[in-house]
Amino acid sequence: MATTTRGLDSQGYIAREGSLDLIQQEFRPLVTAARDQLLSAFGPRMTSLYLYGSVPRGTARPGRSDLDVLIALSDEPTGEDRSAAKALAESLDKGSPQIDGVGLLIVSRTQVLSDLERHDLGWFVACLCTPLLGEDLAEHLPRYRPDALLARETNGDLALFLPRWRERIARGDDPRTLDRLMSRHLVRTGFTLVMPRWNGWTSDLTRMAEVFGTYYPQRADEMRRAAEAAYEPTGAPHTLRTYTEDLGPWLAAEYEAVHGLKAPRP
């Protein structure tokens, strides 16, 4: 389906990203290995398997990008399921020099299709995930526009993350990992803050920061630096403090004022 330069189709809905055809050759053996190992581990309980992120978009950088995978099970994941998924992700990462980490989300089919998750996890699966195996749950979900409801339900909970980030900094978690995690979250939140006004969608963090900066020029440089850190994190202490004590709190307050708070989860 043809898309506009703002990631929408001809009817103004967010066009689905990614395709198996776009996966670069150097990542194809890894994708096959991940598919086969996950199928072996979870069997018929795994109703759907997706890729998301730079690999199915064809923009992955060898040795620098993650492999991001989402599994939907027929029932609720258990602690054992999550442990098995974590171990498998670590094994794939350790044996694959072409990537820098494996992100593996494990959810239930019911959760994806629930009313509560319709404009969060459901939207994520329908628009940002590329089907690799099994049922495509997007067939049971609506189409999505870049509106205020989507903005609120995707990123209207930044305030909940700030104390967790402070705890991780105080605990001494790897600063580069934190820099990468927090900067990406902040850039995406900054973009979805202005997404309804811009009326489009992009997953490119650099472009997200640029779009944000056109509406909030006073914060444009901070968001641009966060986008740079998302790709090249340094973990500098002053950078992490800026995220948790300046840019983050301001962004959370502005988001609440513009879009309101995300519906609470159990």
Automatic annotation (TrEMBL):
<protein>
    <submittedName>
        <fullName>Nucleotidyltransferase domain-containing protein</fullName>
    </submittedName>
</protein>
<dbReference type="Pfam" id="PF01909">
    <property type="entry name" value="NTP_transf_2"/>
</dbReference>
<dbReference type="InterPro" id="IPR043519">
    <property type="entry name" value="NT_sf"/>
</dbReference>
<feature type="domain" description="Polymerase nucleotidyl transferase">
    <location>
        <begin position="46"/>
        <end position="79"/>
    </location>
</feature>
<dbReference type="InterPro" id="IPR002934">
    <property type="entry name" value="Polymerase_NTP_transf_dom"/>
</dbReference>
<dbReference type="GO" id="GO:0016779">
    <property type="term" value="F:nucleotidyltransferase activity"/>
</dbReference>
<keyword id="KW-0808">Transferase</keyword>
